[in-house]
Recover the amino acids of this structure.
């Protein structure tokens, strides 16, 4: 509560000064609805604070935040999932109102998850081929004789449904409605040891609570196209999302050093999962958990700031890409 | 009248035959089963283009307004956060005390203490800050329009449909345009809540000014007032109660909208907390946060209601309690400087029962699994599936235990015909034709009924209940849904909402009757209903999903939980407020309790009960949007698709569609209610 109070007051005063001195504008970081993003946001924020920037965290819905970043009301969102962005985001990226600064380094895996006890009822798992034989083990009253497959909510696209149709699997896709409903279903299904097969994603805090396995496909390719192209015996499942860091269009100009540091920032699934467990399972507040991590991993974030840190292959590719982007931008300007 | 009596059964029977024939033909003609995609005019593209143009033209102006509006909210937040919690709590206690005595004071005090104990003080104050700014704005705007509508009949004719639209379009649908126009931030919640909260103020202002007795106005005119004086010194004081009721309703509407708007973000308020916990499916925490909102709502409701109903002291020596109150506040403030615990609620005193609540729910789910499955399956097999896809498909060995053989089909047809024939020979031709229609539609199923047939049935039903005007309006609205390409979703919404309304109405009326006969039941029901109506509806969803799983059944229960409240309220209210003479007369001729209820009270209360049905329908449609969060495929889902994609047109089309359905249902039930009222010469007022 104290934190909130301080935050509120800080935001009020900050906004008061904003009109007089532009440079004193704090860097506003979007806080979305899930714990993993809170961690990324607070690590980025703590790093920026160490660099001497003023930082403010603002709660923002996953889609509305893009409108805010595009107009510069928010500055930074370090964890954007490329598969759930709506229409505002690509438009804003195209027009330059939102700038993408490469991958965060998290490796998401999306696909169909099931609790381990289902492997007893369906021995062939995790191979997806087993699902043809034991669809009835996953059946429910509203889908019988087909198996019940919970998919993403209708507004997140229809990839699972397309795949079921393409592979002609004996499953009935049921739209999950919302993340909360999906998690609630998961919790209650596992508690009562009921059948469950659900399209879901990782890293997610639920994996700190529950043990879930992922259905495997014939092959896993990076350029896998979900949908009608796939056949039984030659299925790759789902195109995997990427997780990007994004900033508002004029961020690089106003905070060049912060931009460079964010460019170097890299997290991993392990870092997030460990912190998620601490926060959601053990009840440690985000700020404390992140502060602990910052203290223990000084070398990594200091490396991001100085730029001397782990500049692995992917970040070099990123840099080349961002160079390309800026060259293109220059060319555009010259053409005008 | 005679012509009408013959015409109706003929047309209903014709519609039944039409549905059957078209259904048989739809096997070979696709255009009948499904409205051809080529014929769909995409209004979404036009709407999006319009919106883009708007942003281009007025964007900067809106942004500037948005920027200005942000300040009062920030100041209010700053003030509420700077004040010690004890001072704010004392203030509300005093407010309650002066308004309606120690009971309300106690209630206000306990409510505020709860916020602090549960650890949501900061978030609650952020919510309160927005409400604090939005209510006066809504009241001012609403009052101005109300006065305009009172003096000018033409203005009223324009204002009223706009109010209907603002109140029936699901709140989620207009968040996106506001976000696009005003930009991100607290402003979105503020503007949305003002838009949603001012209509009740307009209605009550007009109602109040109208109800001022002519003698009072005449007396004012005779004593030589100027028009200005006549309004401020005569009309307005006489209409005071109703206008203040408007303030009360605006406050409630504003609060509920602020909560919904928190989906946008920008403020760390209690609505955001509810959404986050709901996302985590943290049942305990979301319930605790939900109670905060219910308590804020109830406290604000009781306090504003108390001040609205309080008789006005003419000579006004009423200043002294406020001096005392001010002194108390200053005292508490001074104390809080000395005792830090009064300034900021100590962290160690925060009590969090959420984990225990979650564990209890999980245990219940595991222990009662068989019962839960049995309830769900029988509801699904015997009620929902038959209505959705028709008996023809719903009856199968897996669901009902036997297959629908041609013999059984013939038996079903014979049964329907026999029932219709029986009704016909008892001289109830209309009933006979309706039985026929029912028989056909329940065999085909709502979603399989060819669209031209369903269109004709609904339009004719509108004609029969409310006349030509509504029939034309209905036809236009349905045509919009068909041409916009959302007909299948509309039918799914109709199906889900229809069942929910039916069950809510039957069960709700029964509970309402029981509550009207028993003080204990009434006393138990009231807080439950208040909570259901004021708690953000997302909160109800989590436990339902954990028990009954994702799907339509859960959505149905969620809709019922919300829509049942007006059915109970209006029934009880109607039965308790009957003309005393009639009851006395019935008593003197020696009616038994059951005779009294069935022969006297219920027929007299029917108009009020019908109004309850009307509200049940509106609430049910409103809840569809929330229910979509647990996996339905109707219009509600379209609104999220629009919001998720940032697509203004898709969300708006669905929103207008739902508003249209709500308004049609509203006009139809009101027409029936009015006819009953005229028959008994009664007058009914809204609860």
């Amino acid at each position: 509560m104290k934190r909130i109070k301080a935050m509120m007051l800080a935001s009020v005063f900050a906004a008061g000064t904003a009109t007089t001195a532009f440079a004193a504008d704090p860097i506003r970081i979007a806080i979305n609805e899930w714990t993993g993003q809170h961690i990324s946001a607070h690590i980025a924020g703590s790093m920026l604070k160490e660099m001497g920037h003023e930082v403010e965290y603002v709660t923002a819905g996953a889609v509305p935040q893009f409108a805010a970043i595009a107009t510069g009301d928010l500055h930074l969102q370090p964890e954007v999932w490329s598969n759930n962005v709506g229409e505002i985001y690509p438009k804003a990226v195209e027009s330059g109102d939102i700038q993408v600064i490469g991958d965060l380094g998290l490796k998401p895996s999306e696909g169909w998850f099931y609790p381990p006890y289902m492997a007893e009822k369906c021995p062939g798992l995790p191979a997806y081929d087993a699902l043809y034989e034991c669809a009835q083990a996953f059946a429910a009253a509203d889908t019988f004789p087909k198996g019940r497959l919970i998919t993403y909510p209708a507004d997140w696209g229809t990839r699972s449904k397309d795949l079921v149709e393409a592979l002609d699997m004996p499953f009935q896709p049921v739209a999950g409605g919302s993340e909360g409903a999906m998690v609630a279903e998961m919790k209650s299904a596992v508690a009562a040891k009921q059948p469950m097969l659900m399209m879901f994603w990782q890293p997610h805090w639920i994996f700190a609570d529950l043990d879930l396995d992922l259905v495997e496909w014939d092959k896993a390719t990076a350029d896998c196209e979900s949908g009608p192209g796939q056949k039984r015996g030659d299925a790759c499942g789902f195109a995997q999302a990427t997780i990007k860091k994004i900033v508002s269009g004029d961020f690089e100009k106003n905070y060049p050093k912060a931009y460079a540091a964010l460019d170097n920032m890299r997290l991993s699934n392990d870092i997030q999962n460990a912190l998620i467990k601490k926060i959601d399972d053990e009840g440690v507040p985000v700020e404390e958990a992140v502060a602990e991590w910052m203290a223990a991993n000084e070398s990594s974030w200091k490396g991001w700031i100085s730029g001397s840190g782990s500049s692995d292959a992917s970040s070099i590719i990123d840099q080349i890409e961002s160079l390309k982007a800026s060259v293109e931008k220059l060319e555009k300007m010259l053409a005008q | 009248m005679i012509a009408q009596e013959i015409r109706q059964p003929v047309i209903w029977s014709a519609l039944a035959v039409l549905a059957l024939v078209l259904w048989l033909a739809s096997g070979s003609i696709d255009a009948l089963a499904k409205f051809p995609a080529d014929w769909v005019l995409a209004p979404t593209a036009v709407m999006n283009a319009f919106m883009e143009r708007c942003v281009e033209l007025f964007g900067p102006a809106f942004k500037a307004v948005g920027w200005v509006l942000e300040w009062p909210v920030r100041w209010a937040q700053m003030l509420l956060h700077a004040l010690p919690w004890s001072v704010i709590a004392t203030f509300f206690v005093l407010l309650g005390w002066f308004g309606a005595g120690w009971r309300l004071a106690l209630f206000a005090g306990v409510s505020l203490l709860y916020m602090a104990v549960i650890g949501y003080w900061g978030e609650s104050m952020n919510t309160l800050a927005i409400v604090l700014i939005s209510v006066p704005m809504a009241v001012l705007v609403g009052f101005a329009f109300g006065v305009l509508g009172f003096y000018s009949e033409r203005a009223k004719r324009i204002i009223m449909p706009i109010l209907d639209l603002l109140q029936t379009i699901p709140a989620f649908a207009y968040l996106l345009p506001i976000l696009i126009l005003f930009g991100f931030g607290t402003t979105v919640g503020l503007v949305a809540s003002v838009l949603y909260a001012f209509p009740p103020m307009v209605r009550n202002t007009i109602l109040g000014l109208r109800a001022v007795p002519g003698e009072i106005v005449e007396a004012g005119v005779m004593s030589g007032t100027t028009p200005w004086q006549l309004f401020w010194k005569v009309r307005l004081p006489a209409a005071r109660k109703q206008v203040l009721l408007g303030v009360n309703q605006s406050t409630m509407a504003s609060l509920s909208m602020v909560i919904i708007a928190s989906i946008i973000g920008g403020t760390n308020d209690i609505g955001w907390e509810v959404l986050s916990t709901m996302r985590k499916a943290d049942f305990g925490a979301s319930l605790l946060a939900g109670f905060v909102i219910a308590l804020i709502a109830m406290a604000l409701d009781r306090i504003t209601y108390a001040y609205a109903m309080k008789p006005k002291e003419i000579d006004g020596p009423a200043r002294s309690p406020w001096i005392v109150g001010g002194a108390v506040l200053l005292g508490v403030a001074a104390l809080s400087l000395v005792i830090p615990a009064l300034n900021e609620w100590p962290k160690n005193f925060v009590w969090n029962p959420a984990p225990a609540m979650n564990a209890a729910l999980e245990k219940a789910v595991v222990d009662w699994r068989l019962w839960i499955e049995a309830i769900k399956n029988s509801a699904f097999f015997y009620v929902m599936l038959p209505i959705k896809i028709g008996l023809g498909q719903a009856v199968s060995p897996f669901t009902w235990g036997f297959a629908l053989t041609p013999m059984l089909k013939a038996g079903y047809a014979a049964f329907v015909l026999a029932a219709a024939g029986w009704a016909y020979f008892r001289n109830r031709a209309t009933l006979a034709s309706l039985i026929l229609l029912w028989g056909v539609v329940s065999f085909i199923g709502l979603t399989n009924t060819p669209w031209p047939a369903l269109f004709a049935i609904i339009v004719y039903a509108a004609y029969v209940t409310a006349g030509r005007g509504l029939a034309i309006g209905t036809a236009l609205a349905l045509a919009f849904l068909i041409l916009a390409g959302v007909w299948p979703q509309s039918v799914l919404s109709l199906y889900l909402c229809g069942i929910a309304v039916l069950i809510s109405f039957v069960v709700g009326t029964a509970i309402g009757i029981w509550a009207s006969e028993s003080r204990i039941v009434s006393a138990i029901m009231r807080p439950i209903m208040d909570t259901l109506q004021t708690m953000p509806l997302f909160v109800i969803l989590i436990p339902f999903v954990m028990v009954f799983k994702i799907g339509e059944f859960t959505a149905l229960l969620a809709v019922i939980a919300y829509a049942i409240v007006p059915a109970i309220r209006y029934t009880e209210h109607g039965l308790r407020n009957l003309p005393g003479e009639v009851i006395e007369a019935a008593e003197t001729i020696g009616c038994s309790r059951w005779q009294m209820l069935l022969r006297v009270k219920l027929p007299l209360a029917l108009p009020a009960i019908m109004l309850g049905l009307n509200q049940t329908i509106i609430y049910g449609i409103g809840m569809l949007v929330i229910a979509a969060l647990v996996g339905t495929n109707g219009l509600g889902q379209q609104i999220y698709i629009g919001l998720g994609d940032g697509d203004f047109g898709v969300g708006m089309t669905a929103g207008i569609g739902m508003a249209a359905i709500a308004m049609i249902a509203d006009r139809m039930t009101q027409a029936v209610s009015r006819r009953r009222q005229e028959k008994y010469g009664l007058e009914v007022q809204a609860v």
In short: Chain A touches chain B through 63 residues (CB under 8 Å). Chain A has two domains: 2-107+242-335, 109-214.
